[in-house]
Amino acid sequence: MWERIGALVRKEFIQMKRDRRTLAMMLLLPVIWLIAFGYAVNFDVNTIHCTIVDHAQNEESQKVREQMTQEEGLEIVEAEDEQTAYRRLEQGTTDVAIIFPKNFKLLAKSEDGQMRFRVDGSRLFTAQSAIRELNGILGDLQQENMQSLKETVQTAAGQSPEVAAQLQIPSHPDQAKIPPQVWKRMEESIRAKVEEAMGTATEKQLQQMGDLLPNPDYMIPRVDVLYNPDLKSVNYMIPGLVGLVLIFITTLMTALGVVREKERGTLEQLMVSPLSSFELILGKLLPYMMIAVIDFLVVLGVGIWVFEVPFTGDLVSFALAAFFFLAGSLGMGLLVSTVSQNQQQAMQLAVLTLFPQIILSGFIFPLEAMPWGIRWLSYLMPLTYFLPISRDVFLKGMSAWDHPLSFALLALFGILFLLIATIRFRKSLT
């Protein structure tokens, strides 16, 4: 029995050796996947671009700004007015606008002393990191000021030992753990304890002490998230999925369709027909382009009406960008078909071509989090340029013309891939 099994095993190895492309992919694909995942799979955002508008220009705002400047990962620039900061947000050159009001206080008692953040929600992971990082900086500084406030309140209360024993001022709450309403109840509890301990204190003393306590509702910065107010992951993912679905279906469909013709022998029959090579290529690609356009409309409709992702931009320019993107995908599929002997090889090569685009294009993992050694590969992939156009058209109300470089590169990729694939296909026909 073992001799028969051994003979069959040897036969399989001989077949693998003959099919060197499949063998190479079997050996190299795990290594490529491991390297891609190891370096590119990183949700951490290394750089957050911040624009500061400081209307206060006081000691406390200066203290916060200095702390932000020292923080690794924050790139700080200043703007003279809020309109400039908001314009940078719209253009995508900054991730968050930080506004210090004229009466800014770390331990704010009213709305006119409350800091404001305006964040670009179309960059989901960057927005989440920015809010978390900036709240952490502000919270640490507020905690430092709490001890000083406690001493001030005790002085206002007449430096009563009984009050000092009863007075417990908590540090700034972590938004992720203590909701504002809980923090407010804590503040009310403090006031109650103080009033109880100050039983014989004058009304003026109580009022003076109460006025010194900060209002927790205004200690926490007011955060305005633009373009994706609830920071929904679906609003971030669906515009990217439009591109991913299109490139996957188009590349795979074209590659398998052409190779299937080779396997059946019908491609040779077309070669001896009166059709020129150009007519043959065009006739093969046009049906796939038409199906791809239908796929584009279906995916777009499902994203808007089923997942309720807002589409606020220019449809015409977006459709034109998608056309060039689809042309490049068709070219990739045709190119894969020219180097594949059968459908199995075509499937493997198509997956090998598409997988890096899923990982390295910024579809899931932010490009800013990737090391430069891997990131440069991202700029060789069409999906990298289609994604920012798609997300900004969906969420920001922009058009493809607002991304002239990405649009031009999409057109270049489309023409280049189709040209190379056509030349290769003509050679394979002859």
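^ that was protein a. below is b, sequence first then the tokens
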Amino acid sequence: MKTFSPTPMRSVLQVTTRPRLGPLGHSSQLPSRLSKRSSQRYARAAQTFSPQPKKVLNLVLRRPAWSSHRSYNNNSYGYYTPESFWVRNKPNIVVGSIIGFCCVTYYYKWTAENLAAKGNHARADLIRRNFVNSGENLREGRWWVMISSSFAHGNLMHLGFSVLPIWGFGRPLVGLLGVPCFMGLCVISAVSSSRAYIYWEDTKETLRKEMFNRRWDKPKDPRVLGIQISKERALAISGSGGAHYGGSQGASGIACGLTGARVCIMPWAWTSYFSILPMPLWAGETLLTIASVVGMATGYAPIVGHAGHLGGTAVGIAYYYGIARPWLRRTGRF
């Protein structure tokens, strides 16, 4: 009888591969290596089962079952790949871009003021028409000022106090909500803050006209937001000096919206307001809300947009419970 001597590769395949074993039952179903005698069981390699090398290599090199149904680290290769720069730095990039745009807008506004002092008012007019949230701009159809005004600031202190909470509260929200949901929160907070400011300024302007122009001939006291107030309180709200009805600027509305959403997610988390007052988020948000209400009722610090702060906070809370929270639960993130 003519024998065949296998090659080394064939021997390796014979050792590493075996036929699939079925369930043990009758003796006729036992594997051949158990039913044969010892002399047959330890036969030479040439007489054992040896499939074709191509089929064996396909079995060895085939992707595991788990990698054919899901991806590892968001890729389709089935093995680890390093995360991209965008994935590793997404919160810093998104929030840093917002702060960077605020800084660029402030620099442009600063140069416009310097040119206006020298007699060139072209840039100053562009800033006034496109980066100031005012009733005049809205009546003339420039609706984008409700968003663009959030990136313009009056001075460096205003810029710092606006972007500091955005940097602190924004980055965790980017990682939790994702970029689209986070940007939606920023846009809605900016719009609601601007609309709340315009509504409150219209209310104050109506009171101012009725009080200072001596057209208050009503027998009853005036009403603000459906609440009856005294004439003295109306005088304090409208501004004792009859300030000019201008506009608003600043990213504080976005910051209040982010703070409102963050306090709903983790109300007991401790933070340092203005880096000097450590307290839980819910306590700090409550104090800021009370301060805004008192400022609106007494006319204290009229240069501060108290109504815009309340509008941004309210929409941030509503956005979380109406949009962000259902989406987080549906995706299993929260």
